Amino acid sequence: MDRRDWLVICTGLLIGVLAALLVKWGNPQNMGFCIACFLRDIAGGLGLHRAGIVQYLRPEIPGLVLGATLAALIGREFKSKGGSGTIIRFLLGIFMMIGALVFLGCPLRMLLRLGGGDLNALLGLAGFVVGIVAGIEFLKRGFNLGRAQTGSLAAALIMPLVSVVIILLVIYKPLFNAEVGGPIFTSAKGPGSLFAPLAISLAAGLIVGFLAQRARLCLSGGIRDYALTKDTYLLKGYGAIFVGVLIANLILGYFNLGFVDQPVAHTDGVWNFMGMALVGLAGILAGGCPLRQLIMSGQGDTDGGITVLGMVAGAAIAHNFMLASSPAGPTPYGKIVVIIGLIICAGIGWVCREA
C-alpha cells in the first residue's frame, strides 16, 4: 500500500473510533455520527419540523463543514464553483434524506450500525449497492447535470458562514417567546435529548471534516469507483471505519449482534433495503453521498451546498408528512414516497443524458 492508502485507512479508523466515543460521551447509541440524523435534528432544532424527540442543533455538522473548509484552505482547494443542475440537485437531496429516514440512517450510520452488531443494516447495505449500480448504468449512458461554473467568493462562503451561525445559536440559545419556545428547540426526550458536550461534538466535527476532505471520503463514490475501474481506495476507508467502530464498540460494551432490540432502528428488511436503494441512486446522480455533499459545501462547492439544503428540506418534509420511520417500522406514507422517489430519480437519470 502507498501513502495515499494509509491516509484513507488511518482516517477511517479514527472516524470509527471517534463515532463510538461520541456515544460514550452522550450521543445516541449506534449514532455517534450520522449525517442524515444530525441534519434532521438541526431541521427540528430550527423549528422546520415539530417532531419533538428529534430536535437539537448538532454541533458535529457545522464542525464538519468548517473542518472541510480549513482542510481545503490549507490544501489550496477552496474555490467557488457550481450551477450544475441546481434545482435537480435540491430535489435529489430531498429524496436522499427521505430514503435515509425510512432506513433510519445515512451510509455512514449504516456502517456504524453494522459495527454495533445491527444486522438490519445488512439489508440497507444491499439496497445501497443496488441503488448505486442503477445509478452507474445511467452514468454509462451519458447522465450529466452539466458543467459547474466558477462562482464568486461570496457564494463559496455561504455554507461555512451558515455553520458559524448554527454554532452561535447552539452556544447562546436565543429565546424569542417564553410561552411557545423558539426559535431554537431542543428535545426533552428521545434521540434529540442525547448529545455529547458542545466542545467535544464541535471538535469531533472539525476532525472528521478535515480528515474526510483530505481523504476524499465518499461511500457511494467508493462503490462506484470499484464497479467502474476496480479502484478500492475509498472502500478501504469505509472498511476502516467499520473496523474502527467495531473494535471500539467491543471494548466499550456497545456491541449487540442481532436484528431485534437495536437502537433507533426497525426490522422491516424490505424497507431498509428500499430506503437505502433510494439513497444510493440519488447519491450517484448528485455526485456523492450525504457526507461527501457536506464536505464539498465546506470547500466552496455550491452544488454540494444546494444538495445539503435539499437534505434539510427533505428532513422537514419527512417528519411533517409522516414519511420518516420509527423503531416500530416505516409508515405507509414513507413507503409510497420511497417508490415515487425511485421513479423520479430514475427519470432524472434517463432524461439528463448527453446527446
TrEMBL record:
This is Sulphur transport domain-containing protein. The keyword Transmembrane applies. InterPro entries: Seleno_YedE, Sulf_transp_TsuA/YedE. The chain crosses the membrane at residues 6-23, 61-78, 90-110, 122-139, 151-172, 192-212, 233-257, 269-291, 303-321, 333-352. Keywords: Membrane, Transmembrane, Transmembrane helix.
